[in-house]
Every structure is written in C-alpha cells, then in structure tokens.
C-alpha cells in the first residue's frame, strides 16, 4: 500500500444530505471542525454543547481580503445560536475535541489566542476583534500538543477560500484605516526595533521614545500596545495631558536621517497607495544590541 506524502493530512469528512453543515474530523489531533452557514447555527445538535473556539467569516473581496472574528465559549451550540440571524457574517467555523474529553477552559483560551495570531499575520485576513485574547497559564508540556491544532484549521479555511498565508496585506485596500502597523513591518516599510518619537513638541514629550516590535506593536515604558492610538493615549495620560481624539498615526513619528521626524501616517498612506518607494532605508535603524 502506498504511503501519503508527508504534507498530506487525512481527514474524515461528514457531508449531510442538506449540505448545510460539514464536519471535518482530524484523527491525528482528535479535533472536530464544523463548517456551516450562520443561518444553520441555530440548528446545532447537542454534540456541540461543549467548550470550543469559533471563527465568524465574511465573504472574501475581489482582492482576496476578508474580515473575520475569533471567539471562545463554554457552549458552541448556545453561543452560535446568537449569531444565527447575523447578516454581517456568512459562514462559521467551529473547533472542538472529537472525544468526550473536551478542551478545558485554559486550552480554549489558548487556542482562541493562537488562531487570533494566525489571522493577525495572515496576508488576506482582517480581524474584527476589539480585544486581543491571551492565555499565558498553559503548562509548557501542553503547548506542543495545542500548537498542532492550528494546522488542520488552516487547511479547512484554505479549502473554502480563506487564505491564511503569512505576508504583508494587499496594498490596494480602499480604506486606509484598515492598515495596521504590522502591515508596514511585513511590507518592509519599517524595521522591527525602529524608534518612535512624538511628532509634536510638548511638556515631557521630548523624553519619550518608543519602538516598533517585531509583531507590529508599540513598546514603551515596559508595556506594549496593539494600536498607535492606544500607545499615544498612554503617553499623554502618563504626562497628565489631554488624550481626547488623539490619532496615534500622527502622534508617533519615525526619526529619519534626511527628513527629520516622519509621522506614521505618511508611511501608511504610501503603503495604501502602493508606493514602492518607502523610507525604510532612510529610517533610523534600531541600535545594535
């Protein structure tokens, strides 16, 4: 009997007569992945009354980009029933253990955060989560097992046209507000470790210096923020200054060799326009450690 190539992952796929819900079972990880339209979420069986993680998906655009939301719940059946009437998402992907030995709450929290990070770095995905899920209390010996759960989810997503390949976001996005700092890092516009300083003068601002992390966050004062405006508000609050309506893209600037401080908004606008000429070579390199 011939053997499968090492990059092939065998699944058991259950196709119901109505074609509404598809169950994919990965026996190597003991994982069951349910794929269905959001209107079918109200008809989930009692088998799905277990803890798990879910992904809500919007239809891909012409350029391949799509919006998604990652969540966790103690009961997939009950939580997804709330989304049955949603007109924002057209498809749901559910992840649970195949056996009666369900994922416990810490594992569910970790998997939610792992899938969030997968979409965060994915070239075509746009997350709609308002909060960043994190779970740091999983024992080290469980991590190798949990890390294997991402691969079958990636393959099922690719099967239905939702690419999660890592890479810079497409530059032909209609709305600049959808661009993230991570896009600029992955796209080579800015360097991880690149320093950031306030673009304008003000009391105490001349002593403020942050930096861009390798995963597209802003680090300052021993903390990290996912969005430039969050970091800007933290600085202004620390300095007892008004942070109302502050735009982090204009608050933060990159010190360059020839043009002084260049606001992050300038890099974002060039990225959105598809301007290949960036100031990445003009920006101040991170200091050697």
Overall number of strands: 13
Report the average pLDDT across residues: 85
Major β-sheet strand ordering: 1-2-3-6-4-5-7
Kindly give the count of domains.
2
Q: What is the alpha-carbon Rg in Å?
A: 22 Å
Order of helices and strands: EEEEEHEHEHHHEEEEHHEEH
SS element count, helices: 8
Biggest beta sheet summary: 7 strands, mixed
Please estimate the helix content: 10-25%
User: Which descriptor suits the 3D outline?
Assistant: elongated
Walk me through the structure.
This protein has helices spanning 76-81, 105-121, 143-147, 150-159, 181-186, 228-238, 248-251, 264-273, and strands at 12-14, 21-26, 31-37, 52-57, 66-73, 91-97, 125-127, 195-198, 210-212, 218-220, 223-225, 252-256, 260-263. It has 2 domains: 12-159, no CATH class; 176-273, no CATH class. 24% of the residues lie in helices and 21% in strands. The chain has 289 residues and is of the alpha+beta class. The model is unreliable at 276-281 (pLDDT under 50).
What's the SSE blueprint?
Layout: E1 12-14, E2 21-26, E3 31-37, E4 52-57, E5 66-73, H1 76-81, E6 91-97, H2 105-121, E7 125-127, H3 143-147, H4 150-159, H5 181-186, E8 195-198, E9 210-212, E10 218-220, E11 223-225, H6 228-238, H7 248-251, E12 252-256, E13 260-263, H8 264-273
Parallel strand pairs: 5-7
Antiparallel strand pairs: 1-2, 2-3, 3-6, 4-5, 4-6, 8-9, 8-12, 9-10, 10-11, 12-13
Key phrases:
289 residues, alpha+beta, 2 domains, seven-stranded mixed beta sheet, six-stranded antiparallel beta sheet, 8 helices, 13 strands
